[in-house]
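Recall the central idea of this unit: under ordinary conditions, the amino acid sequence of a chain determines the structure it adopts. In this exercise we apply that idea directly, starting from the sequence alone.
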Amino acid sequence: MHVLSIILPLYLALPTTAGSLKPRATYTDCTDSQKQLLSAAVTDAGKMASAGASSLRSNSASSLFQTFFKTTDSSAMDQVASALEKIAEEASQPGGGVVTYSCSPGSISCQSGGFTTTGYASTDGTNGQVNTCPAYFDLPASSDDCTVLDQRTSALHELGHTKGVLGNEVYGYQEIMNIDTQTALSNAESYAFLRSVAQVARLKQVAQ
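Accordingly, the structure predicted from this sequence is:
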């Protein structure tokens, strides 16, 4: 059996001139069903990010933060909370934000060796673009297993890139458990799974 590793790479675009920076949030190259799935994932990602930022601001998620970021330093928690707030704001205003979403990979290859890419993001420092590969739509829309990459967690990851979470990336739940604080703070996957774990835990508490 061949196991494909799923990655979500970042491509950083060159800056544009100030005159070209315009709000342009929209969905392109999507079928109706793809647009519905991606829009729902972005909305859920925004809700997860908002809840995560609130938990960090109220200092009620320090234990979970320690698990993913190996610190409870207030400046580190503030950095992550600020990024999550930017993601939440972007995701809450479809049609009015500065990120464009595409259901096409564009010019980027979705398959490289043993890796299958589900999506990638680019930014010029203000505007951003999130592109998906076909494999993105094979992910579950959501999962009760917090170690599983689903569409909403993937969307949160990519939105993190458009809001400045940039760095050499480490992918996968088990892998991000073994990185240091500085690597985690610039690793979008750490932000995404922090919120995924917290979301699943909250839903299980509600169900009890």
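Confidence is low (pLDDT under 50) at residues 1-24, 203-208.
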